[in-house]
Write a structure and sequence with these properties.
Blueprint (H helix, E strand, L loop, with lengths): L2 H7 L18 H9 L3 E5 L4 E5 L2 H8 L3 E2 H8 L3 H9 L7 E2 L5 E3 L2 H14 L4 H13 L3 H43 L8 H5 L2 H4 L6 H7 L1
């Protein structure tokens, strides 16, 4: 190994901070694993590489302001199982992992989950949502990263407006049916098709609500 490479691979001791030297044969994925868990801290300078155990204060600073999965669930209205499923698909990521294996999330994860949940309510598949999210990070230009998102949101908006019209009709039908049912609540006659069809509450109306027709007929 060249002298410079050997010097860079030698860990520099920090007082009060247990050091584990980085060997030339140390697997990179092994080192990355422990750094990602917040167990060790890696410091790289032009003259040395320091790989030491992160202090409790350092771990506290790293996790400060982050949210537990239960807090994310409370804020978004999504179940713990769903959040874990989203994470397994790569749709969201934990910002930090404690020594005990507890995943902590940034507040921005709530926005990501809300985005996913809203698109799912419009029957957009998770696979399609993941493509949109991946494009935002891999795009070379803003136009490239937003073109498909804009197209999906445009279709989603059309679907929302369509459902709003359907809900307005639904609201009207329910309101009209409740108006008739107020009379039914005071009725002492045995309900039947003949009796209900001849009821003055229905005969005097220009239109019998669809829900009432379904009950009477």
């Amino acid at each position: 190994m060249p002298k410079r490479a050997a010097r860079l691979a030698q860990a520099r001791e920090v007082p009060g901070n247990p050091i584990r030297p980085i060997r030339a044969d140390q697997p990179c994925e092994h080192i990355t694993h422990w750094i990602s868990r917040g167990v060790f801290a890696l410091t790289v300078t032009s003259r040395s590489v320091t790989f030491g155990q992160m202090s409790a204060t350092g771990r506290e600073k790293q996790s400060r302001g982050l949210l537990k999965i239960g807090e994310i669930a409370s804020r978004t209205g999504v179940t713990l199982r769903t959040i874990r499923y989203y994470q397994s698909l790569g749709l969201i990521q934990a910002a930090h992992r404690t020594r005990g294996g507890l995943h902590l999330y940034s507040a921005e994860a709530c926005d990501r989950i809300q985005f996913i949940r809203d698109l799912r309510s419009l029957d957009i598949p998770l696979a399609r949502i993941r493509v949109l999210l991946d494009q935002r990070t891999s795009a070379r230009t803003g136009a490239e990263g937003t073109r498909d998102v804009a197209a999906v949101l445009t279709l989603g908006l059309a679907e929302v407006e369509k459902r709003m019209q359907q809900f307005l009709v639904l609201r009207y039908e329910m309101t009209e049916a409740l108006d008739v049912l107020e009379t039914c609540l005071r009725c002492s006659a045995k309900p039947s098709r003949e009796v209900c069809s001849a009821c003055e509450t229905l005969t005097r109306r220009e239109r019998v609500p669809a829900y009432i027709r379904a009950l009477v007929n």
